[in-house]
């Protein structure tokens, strides 16, 4: 009796599997996320974040990393908004991060292990911005200014915090490369906090229509900082502080203190006075020159490594077409640490009607976040199906899997401005239109025969575009 039943059930399961994993006609199952088939993508979406945590002085929004496209690309993404005077508490992640500042200004620190505290405030000799003098000696590592257009690289396990000392919201978009070779845990994003009682950033609370997969992962919503798990008296002993202080470090003195807190009074750091964007860039160039003049092997150490670049600078454009727009690329040539992390990024600004040449990424997935404006975007898979065909808007994120073809056209008076993160340090693209396109590389005869067109048409196809990547639309010119 039992045997035929079991057989029937297993047959059903096999059938279901076949239905769900092959072909784009089958409905996409909500919880299909076995990494094996994650790239069998039938549908991509440009989306706003799915999960939101409201904090005392800001919010943290995350995109649902269980979705197929995220599982396929092996990434997670967040948008962090810090209100003026807010502090995103010190934390680290097990996957490398790229953080792009979309709006606002602030300061941050990446605390590098074993590096000297190069900033020193000695007794009586320093005056803070508000005029108060420091009573005691404080040593700490360098605090960095960050502002709109900056990209910051945060390696795995490196503690960092961000403080908004400006008067507008600071908004950052963060890529967590969970499938990076430096991550030896699984692909679930995790953030380890050093303070507070952080809420779960990456998983929706119980009951909010959570998926099967999420229930299995057993993630609760009540988290603690990493000190909380240690025995208080052992911790007090290790830190050489009293029990009461150890309790506070563990976050035992507060019910909930979520991850972005309001700072009492003002945080004052010893640093050069606040500068304008232009000054900031100048300073950046000087820093770089300084580093270049110091090439004796020391620049390779973690302590001196460049972790920040002003990627929004129009003057540093790598690709520029006056009628159509520009692209700024950040790769391991600009920032050597990216070679270790196998990541890169680009920002782009297409004027209205301009087209980003249809192309594919040879070795990388590409994660787009729309900073301003909007674009018509199409992404095509190996079956020649448009798995994404949509108008993407400010605040949305979409993923272009490796080798999938993508075409973008700006369709907004503001144009289309984006930041794209790539999962490879020297991501190369193959364009399908323009002076450097693959069609130019193919012989006329091959084109003529492949498309059944005349030699004349083949020649036109090859040579009628002089631009390379950022193309002006014939309908606009
Ligand atoms: C913490 O460790 C101390 C010393 O080993 C021990 O006496 C105490 O019971 C422990 N506390 C807890 C909550 O386990």
From TrEMBL:
<protein>
    <recommendedName>
        <fullName>11S seed storage protein</fullName>
    </recommendedName>
</protein>
<dbReference type="InterPro" id="IPR011051">
    <property type="entry name" value="RmlC_Cupin_sf"/>
</dbReference>
<feature type="signal peptide">
    <location>
        <begin position="1"/>
        <end position="26"/>
    </location>
</feature>
<dbReference type="Pfam" id="PF00190">
    <property type="entry name" value="Cupin_1"/>
</dbReference>
<dbReference type="GO" id="GO:0045735">
    <property type="term" value="F:nutrient reservoir activity"/>
</dbReference>
<dbReference type="InterPro" id="IPR014710">
    <property type="entry name" value="RmlC-like_jellyroll"/>
</dbReference>
<keyword id="KW-0732">Signal</keyword>
<dbReference type="InterPro" id="IPR050253">
    <property type="entry name" value="Seed_Storage-Functional"/>
</dbReference>
<dbReference type="InterPro" id="IPR006044">
    <property type="entry name" value="11S_seedstore_pln"/>
</dbReference>
<dbReference type="GO" id="GO:0043245">
    <property type="term" value="C:extraorganismal space"/>
</dbReference>
<dbReference type="InterPro" id="IPR006045">
    <property type="entry name" value="Cupin_1"/>
</dbReference>
<feature type="domain" description="Cupin type-1">
    <location>
        <begin position="44"/>
        <end position="247"/>
    </location>
</feature>
<keyword id="KW-0708">Seed storage protein</keyword>
<dbReference type="GO" id="GO:0048316">
    <property type="term" value="P:seed development"/>
</dbReference>
<feature type="domain" description="Cupin type-1">
    <location>
        <begin position="309"/>
        <end position="459"/>
    </location>
</feature>
<dbReference type="GO" id="GO:0034214">
    <property type="term" value="P:protein hexamerization"/>
</dbReference>
<comment type="similarity">
    <text>Belongs to the 11S seed storage protein (globulins) family.</text>
</comment>
<keyword id="KW-1015">Disulfide bond</keyword>
<keyword id="KW-0758">Storage protein</keyword>
<comment type="subunit">
    <text>Hexamer of two trimers; each subunit is composed of an acidic and a basic chain derived from a single precursor and linked by a disulfide bond.</text>
</comment>
<feature type="region of interest" description="Disordered">
    <location>
        <begin position="200"/>
        <end position="223"/>
    </location>
</feature>
């Amino acid at each position: 009796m039992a045997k035929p039943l079991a057989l029937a059930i297993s047959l059903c399961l096999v059938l279901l599997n076949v239905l769900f994993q092959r072909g784009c006609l089958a409905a996409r199952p909500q919880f299909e996320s076995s990494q094996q088939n994650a790239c069998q993508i039938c549908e991509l979406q440009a989306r706003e974040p799915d999960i939101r945590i409201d904090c005392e002085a800001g919010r943290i929004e995350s995109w649902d990393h269980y979705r197929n496209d995220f599982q396929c690309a092996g990434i997670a993404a967040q948008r962090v908004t810090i209100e003026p005077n807010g502090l995103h508490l010190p934390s680290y992640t097990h996957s490398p991060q790229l953080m792009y500042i979309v709006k606002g200004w602030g300061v941050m620190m990446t605390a590098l292990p074993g590096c000297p505290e190069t900033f020193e405030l000695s007794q009586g000799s320093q005056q803070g911005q508000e005029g108060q003098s420091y009573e005691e000696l404080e040593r700490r590592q360098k605090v960095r200014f960050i502002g709109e257009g900056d990209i910051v690289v945060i390696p795995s396990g490196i503690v960092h915090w961000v403080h908004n000392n400006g008067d507008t919201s600071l908004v950052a978009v963060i890529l967590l490369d969970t499938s990076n070779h430096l991550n030896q845990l699984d692909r679930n994003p995790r953030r380890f906090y050093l303070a507070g009682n952080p809420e779960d950033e990456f998983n929706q609370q119980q009951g909010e229509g959570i998926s099967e997969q999420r229930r299995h992962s057993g993630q609760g919503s009540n988290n603690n900082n990493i000190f909380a798990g240690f025995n208080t008296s052992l911790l007090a002993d290790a830190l050489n502080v009293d029990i009461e202080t150890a309790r506070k470090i563990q976050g035992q003195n507060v019910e909930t203190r979520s991850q972005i807190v309001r700072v009492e009074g003002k945080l004052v750091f010893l640093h050069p006075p606040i500068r304008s964007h232009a000054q900031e860039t100048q300073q950046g160039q000087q820093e770089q020159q300084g580093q270049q003049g110091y090439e004796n092997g020391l620049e390779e150490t973690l302590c001196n490594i460049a972790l920040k670049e002003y990627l929004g600078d129009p003057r540093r454009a790598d690709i520029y077409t006056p009628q159509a727009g520009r692209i700024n690329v950040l790769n391991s040539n600009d920032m050597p640490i990216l070679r270790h992390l196998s990541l890169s990024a680009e920002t782009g600004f297409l004027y209205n009607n301009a087209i980003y040449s249809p192309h594919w990424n040879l070795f990388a997935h590409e994660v787009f976040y729309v900073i301003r404006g909007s674009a018509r975007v199409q992404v095509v898979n190996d079956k020649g199906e448009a798995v994404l065909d949509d108008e993407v808007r400010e605040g949305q994120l979409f993923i272009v899997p490796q080798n999938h073809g993508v075409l973008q056209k700006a369709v907004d008076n503001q144009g289309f401005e984006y930041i794209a993160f790539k999962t490879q340090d020297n991501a190369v693209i193959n364009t399908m239109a323009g002076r450097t396109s693959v069609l130019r590389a193919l012989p006329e005869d091959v084109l003529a025969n492949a498309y059944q067109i005349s030699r004349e048409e083949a020649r036109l196809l090859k040579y009628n575009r002089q631009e390379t990547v950022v193309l002006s639309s014939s309908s606009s010119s």
